[in-house]
TrEMBL record:
Domain of life: Bacteria
Residue ranges the record marks as coiled coil: none
Compositionally biased residues, Polar residues: 317-327
Residue ranges of the region described as Disordered: 314-335
Name of the protein in question: Phage recombination protein Bet
Xref: InterPro entries: Phage_lambda_Bet (IPR010183), RecT_fam (IPR018330)
Name of the coding gene: bet
Source organism of the structure: Methylomonas rivi
A Pfam entry, by short name: RecT
Length: 351
């Protein structure tokens, strides 16, 4: 019996239902079908949907109302797309409402219309680059005013968001062509971004970025990983000591398990990416694994080993030391950074 048959019930759908979906969230096969085919039709892995389920369970939200979106984002540091989970504008409004001090929102105020032709490349459904040229008429900017009760008074918070700065591109930074949704709903999508920006201004501790703002962006556009509510990266099953709903490829790498990048400090992510780059150039895989085990602990070590697993060969090509290449010292974390990393890890452990 194959590993896949051991861990997944027999299904005809593209994304098989992990046992954890039923055991941890009480999801039936019919509900899973709705999640994969209706709620999250573009999800690439079952684990991305599990992340969305985890988010909704923690926040006591109905996942079938789609309060979150699964957004693929390109990571230049990792050299690949990762699936991320971001709250929808509806979820951000729900968060503001739950504070008990949200006092309403005005209708959007629009700038003048602009017509512009965008030319460039985009990736089709088969992940192939295609040339495209499209003309879009859109408002130059939008301003939304959100009200919050502060000291017993109704205070206004207004943010302007510009279409050319906010729209999502079909090819990330490789293209200027808007995504299909921004072509179809140029005002509607900008309105969502305007609402999200003003809600953040009014509720900076409660509200973060919305999925509508992150679609088509890259992880490098985000300077603070704390705004990422759930970012998926594949990890080796052996690193976590569990075989639940694992699918292992020929190289022994678990193709489905994920780790939340919001629990990994940006400096650690950059250090790991640099370690992978230099190790790839030198072929010093054994030295890299030894280095990772010495420098990282806990979920940071799991993340580092996972990134090395994805690019390493079964047998190291050379035993060259990393010291013979460039220096590989990990950027030091400040006491504040270390405290934040520990807090994120503790939060992840309690979920």
């Amino acid at each position: 019996m194959s590993n896949q048959n051991r861990n997944y019930p027999a299904k005809s759908r593209d994304l098989p239902m992990p046992m954890a979906a039923q055991q941890g969230y009480g999801i039936s096969e019919q509900s899973w079908k709705v999640l994969t085919e209706v709620t999250f039709p573009t999800a690439k892995t079952p684990e991305a949907i599990l992340m969305a389920l985890d988010y909704c369970k923690a926040r006591k939200l109905d996942i079938f109302k789609k309060p979150v979106h699964i957004v693929p984002m390109w990571s230049a540091a990792l050299g690949r797309n990762v699936e991320t989970v971001w709250p929808s504008i509806m979820e951000i409004q729900t968060t503001a409402s739950r504070t008990g001090v949200w006092a309403g929102m005005d209708r959007p105020v629009w700038g003048s219309d602009i017509t512009k032709t965008f030319t460039g490349r985009y990736k089709d459904d088969n992940e192939q680059w295609q040339e495209s040229s499209v003309t879009v008429t859109f408002p130059e900017w939008v301003a939304v005013t959100v009200y919050r009760i502060v000291g017993g008074k109704r205070c206004a918070f207004t943010e302007e968001v510009y279409w050319l700065e906010a729209y999502s591109t079909a090819g990330g930074k490789h293209s200027q062509v808007p995504t299909a949704m921004w072509i179809k709903r140029p005002k509607g999508q900008l309105a969502k971004c305007g609402k999200a920006a003003s809600l953040r201004a009014a509720f900076p501790e409660e509200c973060g970025y919305a999925a509508e703002e992150m679609d088509g962006k890259t992880l490098d556009d985000v300077s603070d990983a704390r705004v990422i509510d759930g970012s998926a990266t594949y990890i080796h099953d052996a690193a976590i000591g569990s075989n639940d709903h694992a699918v292992v490829d020929d190289a022994g790498v678990d193709a489905n398990r994920v780790v939340d990048l919001s629990q990994i400090h940006p400096k650690v992510q950059k250090a790991v990416a640099e370690l992978v780059r230099r190790t790839t150039a030198a072929g010093a895989w054994k030295a890299a694994y030894d280095y990772a085990n010495q420098k990282f602990k806990g979920i940071d070590l799991t993340f580092a080993l996972a990134e090395l697993d994805k690019v390493s060969e079964v047998e190291p090509r050379t035993t060259q030391s990393l010291d013979q290449t460039e220096g590989t010292a990990m950027p030091p974390l400040t006491p504040k950074d270390m405290a934040m990393t520990q807090a994120r890890q503790a939060l992840g452990a309690n979920r």
